[in-house]
Amino acid sequence: MNPDALSLPWSCTPAARPACGFGLIELLVTMALVALVAAFVLPSLATFAARQRLAAVSAEFSAALALARSEAVRTGLPVLLLPLAAAPAAGNEYGQGWQVVVDADGSGTAGPAETVVRRFAAPPAPLRFGGDAPVSFAPSGFLGRSVTLTMRLCPGNGATQGSAFAIQPTGLADVSRIGDCR
């Protein structure tokens, strides 16, 4: 076998060194640029992730309200949206999660014989979620009380922006952004 047939078309001689790969300086400059970009991107990525968690919990609670309202109309019975915690902390009533329950006996509480339509898991740890509890829908789909109920979903990490829910007597919910969560 001819040894010249196995050689590469270029060789790594000192004159051809740029074609041989990266040197230590190029590698260090590239790593410094990657670190610089990461220093700018990571804080905004954490803010983005926190906003997405807040949006996901807002959407999930809105879906729970729509489910409770539609279940009340479908069954012709009152339906409750209740916190899962037995003794919820003020300002974080829904912090342990919530459930949609058909109130067959009309007592306004979830008894052992009541049908649980769905349970929703607790929001991620740094979020606080509180407000008027329980939410009761009449068989017409309207609220059981003729007052607007309010809820607040706020990040627990000191950030100021959150979500506010205003559940109208008609049973419809308005979700808005708020900037006074501290």
UniProtKB/TrEMBL annotation:
Chain ranges passing through the membrane: 27-50
Record domain General secretion pathway GspH: where: 60-169
Q: Membrane topology for this entry?
A: Single-pass membrane protein
Q: Which GO terms describe its biological process?
A: protein secretion by the type II secretion system
Tell me which UniProt keywords the record has, alphabetically.
Answer: Cell inner membrane, Cell membrane, Membrane, Methylation, Transmembrane, Transmembrane helix
The UniProt entry, under InterPro entries, shows: N_methyl_site, Pilin-like, T2SS_GspH
Q: Highest taxon of the source?
A: Bacteria
User: Matching Gene3D superfamilies, A to Z?
Assistant: minor pseudopilin epsh domain
Instruction: Please provide, in alphabetical order, the Gene Ontology terms of the cellular component aspect for this entry.
Output: plasma membrane; type II protein secretion system complex
Chief place of localization: membrane
- Could you tell me where this protein is found in the cell? Cell inner membrane
Q: Spell out the family assignment given in the record's similarity comment.
A: Belongs to the GSP H family.
The protein's name is: Type II secretion system protein H
What organism is the protein native to? Sphaerotilus natans subsp. natans DSM 6575
